[in-house]
Amino acid sequence: MINLLPLEIRQKEKLASRVYALISVYIIIGSLIALASAGVWTYRFVLDSRLSDKQGQLSSLESAAKVNSDVLSQAAFIKNRLDAQTTYSDSTDWADMLNRVASYTPAAVQLTDLHLARDANATTVGLNGLANSRRDIVLFKDKLNSSDEFTQAEITAINDREETSSQAYSFTIQAVVKENQQ
After folding, report:
1. E strand segments, 29-180
2. Does 87 share its domain with 133?
3. Neighbour tally for 137: CB within 10 Å
């Protein structure tokens, strides 16, 4: 075939063809970059959503673990209290002990509260009550100290109480239960 086109036109066509090829290459590269960035963005979005799901699951597991920990500590506390109750009830006849405390209590003294505290060394009894005179409170303390059941009885508080027609005193006495009585 004979090319009848002048040389200038042929060179222009070659140049245009090269420009079109170059533009096509740029368009393809731009499209690939756009597709790659869309792929990276999509992958990052998927990873972020998975991460937030895992963090939500982790938070729910942490709260469940805290609830379980709270339940376990409450169960341990209840077990400790039951063990202490068993120790108290097994080692001492408290009904007999209360009858003895009542026998040591002077007629003018009224007990309002009795509480126990136990540590590794001893059981301490706290006695709260009302009395007509300070002498009755001291007499009660002395009777506890001279008894076979208690030692180290001490008056920890005496307070004046104004009642309707007579003077009354509220008091607190702490005493240690003797070893053979525990």
Report:
1. 109-118, 123-131, 150-162, 167-177
2. no
3. 23
